[in-house]
Request: fold
Amino acid sequence: MTAGTAPSAPSAIDRSDLRHILIGGTRLGLTIGAAVIIYLLVSRRVPDLIAQALLQTVVVIAAAAAATFLPAQWTTARGTEGIAAAAAVGLWGTIVFMAIDVIVLRPFRAYPWTWDAIGGGSTWWYLPIWWMLGTFVAWLGGLVTAARARRGGKTSIVALSVPLVLGGIGFAAGIGLGQVRIAMPVAAGGGFTAILIVFAIVAVARKG
Reply:
């Protein structure tokens, strides 16, 4: 074989081995844990309500983008295995965050009592919901990433996140200027997720 004719190494796609999933999920859980801590610090240290809401919204949208698209980036989701692996990374990430929550945040009473009151005083009511949500958004992120790659588009986390982030910001701004009493961070997260679901449905419909 002459110089210059050696085949280039194929790009690693659909990385679904267990070790890779566990490492990615651990990184994701630590990332989300850091985002939650930042959110709590903003809630307690920023007195101005408008500035507080804006900073909280930024944290929520950044965390949503990370939870949605980082798993697919790490598994290089292009097919069924990569998409499933992205969902598995999302699930393990929620379990890692659960450890941070139970070991670090709960002993310091990081959350207001009203948070626990939703579940009748239980501190565990939201964990199954968190497991499902983390797995769900990572799975949708894998679907959207694979669909974008199939069309030859850019699959960077920035390129994938921009329309969802803009939609989340627009939804939060609309709620904030309207008469509906929903906190801006909640509205931004809801708008981000709603648009993500629409994008994933379109991706599946095009594939079919």
Observations:
- Residues 18-207 form one domain.
